[in-house]
Specification:
The protein is about 45% helix and about 0% strand. The chain has about 750 residues and is mainly alpha-helical. It has a 5-stranded mixed sheet with strand order 4-3-5-7-6, with helices on both faces. The radius of gyration is 26 Å and the shape is globular.
């Protein structure tokens, strides 16, 4: 106990010391990568931004995280992060940057927390290097520059880690409870993804605490019970509330938060069972097909600043996105094919794996000589914690059936921690000429440089040969110099240390800047020269900056007029074939996404409500498929509204989100996010129309899913509004995903 008290006193003393001046530039780098130009993103992820707009209007919408101001359907995630975003928007005003700001600050906070966690045990230089590695891990700023959840999730889990470490140091059970309760809070950010760190928490507490087994079991059982209680607290309140007194739980099939948490946002991510056909049953040959997640349909960001993407890679070949069944080696959404080396495949390696070889060598060095039965040093115990975080998460991403590239931010903290702690440990072993361990440093540098060359090689047309050759050559030279000088007194120690830093972090630093250089994607954030496409990976087919990243989107009743483009993609419009990628209401052919029948835009992806930003625009509405509204349609609907609750109804959130953002008025996404939620029936719709709640319906062909009966009834019992009354006269035609969008009016007595 005296030892514990002395540690606490030392911690208090150290906290009174001056700020680490070496940390200041690291924090400034993180601030630049996370904050610079976020003010150019007006819509951010429009699905979530629309929810914040709705949540600002009433406590009812705020508590349930309603997607629309009318409280019809929620978003497909728990509310905690969106509560924070709404508070930010309340303080600073409703803007794209104000909903992004909490995540950007969380990204910076994560860098500081990694520094604090590593520094105390492994030394100040380990903490500095770990913080720098965290700041420069490409996927970290890419996600933090958006209003997606993951940056805040990682920050919360790092806070929980700090509490757990403090619980072990002080031997106070209250900190254990606080740590596990914080994981419960994280659960209410992104559900089961928060539990990925639990193996690390359990293993570390068991190994690091010097109490009896009975107490360990009792304390962990109590803490776990508290965590579960906090985790399901919001879900229990929502699920126990009468369905007619709250919004429908978006993207669930049974209007249940718990079903969403442990099904679609839980186990189904591992199995790949993400079908949104109106049934949760997994199709035998379709493990990665249509999805109802807010991340899935967000496969495009049409509105990247052309000034930001002017340096985009050029390719004259015309390509089509292939689903797993179509032979695309990069897998669905560029997440590679399941297997032990998945994290080294294209599309994932450039997001997170730049330092993995060095981390592996660091783990070997940190655990060298450790006996299974102990005793363990503090360094070994905390190394075990980071290993128990790293391995299960890496295994999950190696075998999971469905996830997106930006989920990989979950791997960033343990990789950064091992990079920092390992750099100091391997350097010490090298300087002390500690037998075979002294070879770990040059070996780690050589293999890391080799992997980085491999990661960059598909981007030679974008970044040139020089940086690739430079990293490779510098890695080989530095490894040789270290090997040759291993038996000598190292008078060039400082220079060699700087060279190690350059080899390991130069290209990750450049990759981390790509969302600023080329433009980011707020729906599917990813780093790399294709960062604006939301499909970070090898160069694709855009031939100029205006075509970068699945552009050519249309708002209802408008057209960008880019009918001659042949390098962009369209969602399908026919029937489904097993094992192939499908968009709601679409089809696949031989594993490729096909343009709709009758379309003149070969290979151009188009949605019902988005459009390209003008090249001269200083801001970009990078809501991807939700980029702009049709002003003439809006004026028509507003003028002819006779007291209806909803401005109009549409199949899914894609068409609804921009109108909610721009007007703050209720717009009904009849089938939830993707249009597949079984929310509405014909009888319910009739009742709503008779009550005067809605009379206008915009149907485009997207998101029919589980509501085909409703759409059929609308078409059979409505009056079609002539397009001349609501389509923009300056635009040639409305181009929806499967033909022209149509506006209908229904009035029932």
């Amino acid at each position: 106990m005296k030892h514990m008290n002395s540690e606490v006193k030392e911690e208090r003393t150290s906290n009174k010391k001056r700020i680490d001046l070496f940390l200041v530039p690291i924090v400034l780098i993180a601030a630049f990568l996370n904050l610079f130009k976020i003010w150019t993103d007006e819509y951010a992820n429009a699905y979530y931004t629309a929810a914040v707009k709705s949540m600002l209007q009433s406590f009812h919408n705020f508590f349930y995280a309603s997607f629309d101001p009318g409280g019809y359907v929620t978003i497909d995630k728990p509310p905690v992060v969106f509560w924070i975003q709404t508070i930010s928007a309340k303080i600073f005003g409703f803007h794209g940057w104000s909903v992004i700001l909490p995540q950007a600050l969380a990204g910076i906070g994560s860098v500081l927390l990694v520094y604090v966690l590593v520094k105390r045990t492994f030394g100040v230089w380990a903490g500095r290097f770990a913080a720098l590695a965290m700041a420069l891990t490409p996927i970290v700023p890419a996600v933090s520059r958006t209003n997606n959840i993951d940056s805040m999730l990682v920050f919360t889990l790092l806070v929980a880690t700090w509490m757990l470490f403090r619980a072990v140091r002080t031997a106070k059970f209250g900190w254990v409870l606080a740590a596990f309760a914080m994981i419960g809070v994280a659960f209410n950010m992104k559900m089961l993804q928060a539990y990925m760190v639990l193996p690390a928490f359990y293993v570390f507490y068991v190994v690091a605490t010097k109490i009896t087994w009975k107490k360990k079991i009792a304390f962990l059982t109590t803490a776990t019970a508290l965590m579960l209680a906090v985790s399901v607290s919001w879900a229990v309140v929502v699920d126990s509330t009468s369905a007619d007194k709250r919004p429908y739980m978006g993207s669930s099939q049974t209007n249940s938060v718990l079903e969403l948490a442990f099904g679609y946002n839980g186990i189904n991510r591992l199995t790949g069972n993400t079908s949104v056909t109106g049934s949760s049953r997994k199709q035998p040959s379709q493990t990665q097909q249509q999805t109802a997640s807010s991340e899935t349909k967000q496969t495009s960001n049409s509105s990247s600043d052309s000034s930001q993407s002017s340096n985009q890679r050029k390719s004259s070949s015309s390509q089509k996105m292939q689903a797993p069944g179509g032979g695309n080696q990069n897998g669905m959404f560029n997440t590679g094919n399941p297997g032990p080396f998945r994290l080294f495949q294209k599309g994932l390696s450039d997001q997170i794996s730049w330092l993995l070889p060095f981390v592996i060598f660091s783990i070997v060095g940190l655990f060298a000589g450790v006996k299974f039965k102990g005793p363990y040093t503090t360094k070994q115990k905390e190394s075990l914690f980071w290993l128990a975080w790293l391995l299960p998460v890496a295994v999950f991403f190696s075998i999971a059936g469905f996830f997106h590239q930006y989920y990989l931010i979950m791997l960033a903290p343990p990789i950064a921690a091992f990079a920092g702690a390992g750099a100091v440990a391997l350097w010490s072993m090298y300087k002390q000429r500690n037998g075979w361990k002294s070879w770990l440093l040059p070996g780690g540098i050589l293999t890391t440089a080799a992997l980085q060359v491999y990661i960059m090689s598909p981007y030679v047309s974008s970044i040139g040969v020089a940086p690739i050759a430079g990293v490779g050559a510098l890695g080989v030279i530095l490894a040789l110099v270290l090997a040759v000088r291993k038996e000598r007194k190292n008078s060039l120690t400082n220079y060699l240390g700087a060279a190690v830093l350059v080899v390991l972090l130069a290209m990750p630093a450049y990759w981390a800047m790509t969302p600023i250089i080329y433009g980011g994607n707020s729906m599917l954030p990813a780093a790399g020269p294709d960062s604006s496409s939301g499909m970070g990976g090898p160069p694709s087919t855009a031939t100029n900056s205006k075509q970068s990243g699945f552009n050519g989107m249309q708002p209802p009743g408008s057209s960008s007029g880019n009918s001659s483009s042949n390098n962009q993609m369209q969602p399908p419009s026919g029937s489904s074939n097993g094992g192939q990628l499908q968009m709601p209401g679409g089809s696949s052919n031989n594993g490729q996404m096909q343009p709709p029948s009758g379309s003149s835009n070969s290979g151009q992806m188009q949605m019902p409500n988005s459009t390209l930003s003008k090249a001269s625009s200083s801001k970009r509405k990078s809501g991807g498929m939700n980029a702009e509204v049709n002003k003439k349609l809006l004026n028509y609907l507003t003028k002819n509204n006779t007291g209806e609750k909803y401005l109009f109804a549409t199949t899914d959130s894609t068409s609804a989100a921009p109108y909610i953002i721009e007007t703050g008025k209720p717009v009904m996404a009849m089938g939830g996010f993707s249009g597949s939620d079984p929310i509405l029936t014909v009888s319910k719709l009739k009742a709503m129309i008779k009550k005067g709640e809605v009379k206008y319906f915009y149907l485009s062909g997207m998101g029919k899913g589980g509501q085909s009966d409703v759409i059929t009834w609308i078409k059979e019992n409505s009056k079609e509004i002539p397009s001349s009354k609501w389509q923009s006269t300056s635009l040639s035609s409305q181009q929806g995903p499967s033909g022209n969008g149509t506006l209908y009016e229904i009035t029932l007595k």
